[in-house]
Amino acid sequence: MDKTVKVGAVSYLNTKPLMYAFKHGLRIEGMEIVEEYPAKIASMLLSNEIDVGLVPVAIIPKLKEHYIISNYCIGAEQEVASVCLFSEVPIEQIEKVILDYQSKTSVALARVLIEHYWKLPVIFEEAGINFRDEIKGTTAAVVIGDRAFEQRKISAFNYDLAAAWIDFTGLPFVFAAWVSNKQLPEDFILQFNEANKKGLQNIDAVVSENSSPNYDLKKYYTENISYELTAGKRQGLEKFLRFLPKP
Ligand SMILES: C=C(O[C@@H]1C=C(C(=O)O)C=C[C@H]1O)C(=O)O
């Protein structure tokens, strides 16, 4: 390959299986990897600092050009466990929802579900860094990723957004997919896909080399997160994108 391919991966536990082969020394010539939280990966792809990223799917409509390059994604066919609306009161009493600054998809999903599924008259607020401390009274928050596992132990109520979407639409959900902002060489895509698959074939090894004090990682990787970008997930993705405001 004649030039580098900059790859942006999500720095959460959910992405470890997809990065396993690279962690264990696999190299694709010219490839460089950065790891960041999802909203940051999104802005890096939009500003062309990276060529491909495991980006929140909610930003796909904002890209001038986009290609979903992989058969693997961060999706769910049932409860996802790490994306929830957390509160101290039952959902119908919530008045304000703070939206995790690390997320692009789940915060958009929360808006869709609150308007069309739960039909709640709440106000939304952008999160500051310590937003989880503000979950009290009738103020709830969407929290994603590894921090959600901790929050599950703290909050009295948690509403799983993947489970709600599936109940609402009958379709699976895709949170993030490997999307490039330009065409990439076919041989890179083939090797990248193979690398993703490697960790999924070695889940026990991925579990043993990571730690999560608040949630069972084997369950997370095999029951909650669903990594294959199936036809059903693509349908769920299309349906979700139709709910988003036009960019
Ligand atoms: C299931 C998750 O999927 C994620 C949620 C994202 C989002 O809300 O923008 C983006 C990437 C994924 O890491 C999670 O982080 O818990």
From TrEMBL:
Entry keywords, A to Z: Lyase, Menaquinone biosynthesis
InterPro entries per the UniProt record, alphabetical: Menaquinone_biosynth, MqnA
CDD domains: PBP2_Sco4506
Record's catalysed reaction(s): chorismate = 3-[(1-carboxyvinyl)-oxy]benzoate + H2O
Any GO BP: menaquinone biosynthetic process
SUPFAM superfamilies listed in its UniProt record: Periplasmic binding protein-like II
EC number: 4.2.1.151
Pfam families to which the protein is assigned, alphabetical: VitK2_biosynth
Pathway membership: Quinol/quinone metabolism; menaquinone biosynthesis
Domain of life per record: Bacteria
The keyword ATP-binding appears for this protein: no
Keyword match Lyase: yes
Record-level Gene Ontology MF annotations: hydro-lyase activity
HAMAP family associated with the record: MqnA
Summary of the function given for this chain in its UniProt record: Catalyzes the dehydration of chorismate into 3-[(1-carboxyvinyl)oxy]benzoate, a step in the biosynthesis of menaquinone (MK, vitamin K2).
Family stated for the protein in its record: Belongs to the MqnA/MqnD family. MqnA subfamily.
UniProt-recorded name of the protein: Chorismate dehydratase
Organism: Segetibacter aerophilus
Annotated gene: mqnA
